[in-house]
Recover the amino acids of this structure.
């Protein structure tokens, strides 16, 4: 993966402590993918690391669908923009965008490992629902070990996420789905 160039530098408010933090955007040219923008920065006060990854060119609001059903499928590369949701119905996983959401480039396997790590963290809290945690972690570990088939669905209102594989199916979002997403975003604002 070659860095083509640094294209932008700007500041955002740290989602953790509210300090100003500097973000740099770099443009990469990736084989099989094309131009990808990776943003990253670190808060000088609390050390929080922010990152995002997205295709340089939007292809319109869309749903990206990928089935993991045989060994090797977990090696496909995922580019998830911070504004996209990830849903894995069989595992009861739903990752929503939000002010502290990160975008990243990882493999399906890396994504599952990350979800396991976060679930373990949540489940180590004293008030965690133990039965539910046990069941969920069991399912996630089966997925990690290739013992169950599952579907990765990315809902991307900006159309800048992708899963790099011939098997990936992409569908435009319906009017209803876009409306539902907008409603959700407005809901997030009014909770502040
Ligand atoms: Zn901070």
């Amino acid at each position: 993966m070659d860095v083509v160039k640094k294209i932008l530098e700007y500041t955002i408010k740290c989602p953790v402590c509210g300090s100003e933090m500097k973000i740099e955007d770099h443009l990469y040219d990736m084989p099989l993918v094309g131009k990808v923008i990776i943003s990253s920065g670190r808060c000088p006060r609390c050390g929080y690391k922010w990152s995002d990854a997205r295709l340089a060119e939007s292809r319109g609001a869309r749903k990206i669908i990928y089935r993991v059903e045989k060994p090797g499928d977990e090696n496909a590369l995922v580019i998830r923009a911070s504004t996209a949701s990830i849903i894995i119905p069989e595992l009861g996983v739903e990752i929503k965008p939000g002010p502290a959401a990160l975008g990243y480039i990882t493999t399906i396997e890396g994504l599952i490992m990350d979800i396991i790590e976060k679930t373990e963290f949540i489940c180590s809290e004293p008030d965690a629902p133990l039965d539910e945690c046990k069941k969920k972690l069991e399912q996630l570990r089966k997925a990690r070990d290739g013992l169950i088939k599952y579907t990765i669905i990315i809902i991307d209102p900006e159309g800048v996420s992708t899963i790099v594989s011939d098997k990936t199916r992409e569908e435009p979002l319906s009017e209803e789905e876009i409306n539902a997403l907008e409603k959700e975003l407005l809901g997030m604002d009014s909770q502040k």
Notes: Residues 58-192 form a domain with the Jelly Rolls fold (CATH 2.60.120.1040). The two ends are 39 Å apart (CA to CA). The CA atoms of residues 74 and 109 lie 5 Å apart.
